[in-house]
Amino acid sequence: MLIPVRCFTCGTIVGDKWESYVQMKESDPQRSVQEILDELKLKKVCCRRMIISQTNLIETILPYKK
Ligand SMILES: [Zn+2]
């Protein structure tokens, strides 16, 4: 689905970091997720998991919309 705007646990805004994360991941696929999250200044485990565990399913679900 869409990335949640805030971290479920601590409330830090993570929604604005998703686009940057995807762009950085695509521009250099060899780069580790750890480095990218560090550069995005996501230091807490709870915030990092919001980005790591995100799966964009919106394109999969849209055809089933009434
Ligand atoms: Zn958090």
Descriptive overview:
This protein is mainly alpha-helical. The chain has one domain (15-61): Arc Repressor Mutant, subunit A. 44% of the residues lie in helices and 0% in strands. The chain contains 4 helices and no strands. It has helices at 18-27, 33-39, 45-52, 58-61. It is flat. It starts with 17 loop residues before the first helix and ends in a 5-residue tail after the last helix. The protein binds zinc ion. Zinc ion binds at residues 7, 9-10, 12, 44, 46-47.
Specify Rg, calculated over alpha carbons: 13 Å
Strand content: under 5%
Q: List SSEs in N-to-C order.
A: HHHH
Instruction: Assign an overall shape.
Output: flat
Please report the first level of CATH classification, the CATH class: Mainly Alpha
- CATH H level: which superfamily? Homeodomain-like
* Number of spatially distinct domains: 1
Poorly predicted sequence stretches spanning 5 or more consecutive residues:
none
The span between the termini is 17 Å
Tell me what the CATH architecture is.
Answer: Orthogonal Bundle
Ligands in the model, by name, code or SMILES, are: zinc ion
Key descriptive features of the protein:
66 residues; mainly alpha; binds zinc ion; 0% strand; Arc Repressor Mutant, subunit A
Concise structural overview:
By secondary structure, the chain is an all-alpha fold.
